[in-house]
Amino acid sequence: MKLGVFDSGLGGLLIAKSIRARLPDMDMLYYGDTLHLPYGNRSGEAIYEYSRRAMEFLFEQDCRLVITACNTVSASALRRLQQEYLPSSPWPERRILGVVVPTLEEALEKGCKKIGLLGTHYTVTSNVYKHELQKLDPGIEIAQNAAPLLVPMIENDGIQWIDPVLRHYLKPLLDAKSECLILGCTHYSLLKSQITAIAGQKILLISQDEIIPAKLNDYLNRHSEIANDIKRGGQTRFLVSDLTDNYLASAKNLYGNEIKIEKI
Length: 264
Ligand code: DGL
Description:
Elements: E1 2-7, H1 11-22, E2 28-32, H2 44-60, E3 63-68, H3 71-76, H4 78-88, E4 95-97, H5 100-109, E5 114-119, H6 121-126, H7 128-136, E6 141-146, H8 150-155, H9 163-175, E7 180-184, H10 192-199, E8 204-207, H11 208-222, H12 224-227, E9 236-240, H13 245-255, E10 261-263
Parallel strand pairs: 1-2, 1-3, 2-9, 3-4, 5-6, 5-7, 7-8, 9-10
Helix pairs in contact: 1-11, 2-4, 5-7, 9-10
């Protein structure tokens, strides 16, 4: 069996790359639902339906466990996928994990008392980070801001024009004196240097490509019944629901020219 990594688009490739570095021998299947990107500006019902179909596909491809690297899916659909879809599916013993709680745990472990969150429109308006933080530690403040233009700019080769847009989105989080900044969208990990240039070195960036692999490793250590089912052949397959020249060029930037992406 395999480890599945799911995202709506490009950012998840970075998470998959960092998971691969941490778990070099696990067979991994990446699926990006690029046909329906961006998820972050869609309705909850649409996001649930797209991600449910993605889970079905990944489980049919023999994934034992799927990481939904996408924050928007973790915010909107994860609980329903875990509690409604999975138990009634043909694979009730498979597992789906999200990224919101592990990300907040990291911010708390780092001692942040004032958290800033940058996310997609859906992630921010769902207030999922606020609600989960309330459960973990109600004494911690969180300021959040939606950045709906960032994903389309990143996906369409627009990083060279991103500076003023990023300044606009970061301003309320910096005005709130955030001590750390959660990059609450897979794509934003690609903007770390631009964000640091605006926010300064003092603010701690919580970037999921740096934390999810270790959290996943912990999870697998605690669940040997899952870890033991995943084959250790070190293979990676990349599948997408739509393949554009732009996407391929960005993927090659991340992985090198040898990356093979299959459109399904
Ligand atoms: N990958 C999504 C996330 O992490 C953002 C991209 C999208 O809007 O589809 O929220």
